[in-house]
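Is this the right way to post structure tokens for a design question? Let me know if I should format differently. Anyway, here goes:
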């Protein structure tokens, strides 16, 4: 059986927090790969300001130096809201003999009861929760807890810094910073 970690997100933009949690979970649980899945439309929050193609491209740059990290475009190729249950059903059909681990920050763990078809989803994937400042990895659903060195970086804060001309150096990987500048993404 292959053991694959999934990190779904809006990635607007991808940042060091995403890379750290993905690597810590991979190493801690001994997973074969981590697939990064940028959403077309996040199901529960405002539509991203940045085109899905740009967000996916930034993810590609962000993960390029880790041989275990892969970009999976499954949600970008599916129009409409990116519900995780739809993604997992498709991934399971296309990848027999694979166990999937869905990585979520503690802010998302709290929100799990509101996810679409959550009861079925917990049968199809193992959720892995990581700490995030201000939130606890606590749920009525089974969630594997992985300790990480917490880093309170968020896409929202990065966009705000960029809009105010404040440096985001070291918060996003260098090629992502270059891409943002070249495409004037968050001005
Ligand atoms: N610094 C962080 N520590 C732990 N988990 C994180 C961190 N940043 C993001 N995550 C988790 O990564 C996943 C994808 O996050 P997302 O792409 O929405 O970025 P974000 O920084 O949370 O964005 P936003 O600022 O809009 O909340 C979510 O499960 C989220 O909880
Ligand atoms: O399927 C759902 O109902 C659902 C509700 C909220 C979030 N998610 C998924 O959780 C991941 C992180 O969400 P976000 O908004 O932090 O990018 C992303 O892959 C979303 O599609 C999924």
């Amino acid at each position: 059986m292959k053991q694959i970690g999934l990190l779904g997100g809006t990635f607007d933009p991808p940042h060091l927090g995403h890379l750290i949690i993905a690597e810590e979970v991979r190493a801690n649980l001994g997973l074969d790969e981590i697939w990064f899945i940028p959403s077309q439309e996040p199901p529960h929050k405002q539509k991203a300001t940045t085109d899905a193609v740009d967000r996916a491209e930034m993810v590609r740059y962000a993960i390029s130096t880790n041989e275990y990290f892969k970009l999976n475009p499954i949600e970008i190729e599916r129009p409409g809201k990116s519900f995780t249950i739809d993604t997992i059903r498709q991934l399971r059909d296309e990848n027999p003999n694979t166990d999937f681990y869905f990585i979520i920050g503690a802010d998302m763990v709290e929100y799990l009861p509101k996810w679409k078809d959550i009861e079925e989803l917990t049968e199809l994937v193992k959720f892995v929760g990581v700490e995030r400042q201000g939130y606890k990895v606590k749920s009525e659903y089974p969630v594997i807890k992985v300790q990480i060195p917490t880093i309170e970086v968020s896409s929202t804060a990065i966009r705000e810094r960029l809009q105010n001309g404040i440096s985001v150096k070291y918060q996003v990987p260098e090629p992502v910073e270059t891409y943002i500048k070249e495409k004037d993404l968050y001005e």
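Format looks fine. Someone answered above. Worth noting: The chain has a mean pLDDT of 96. The first strand starts at residue 2 and ends at 9.
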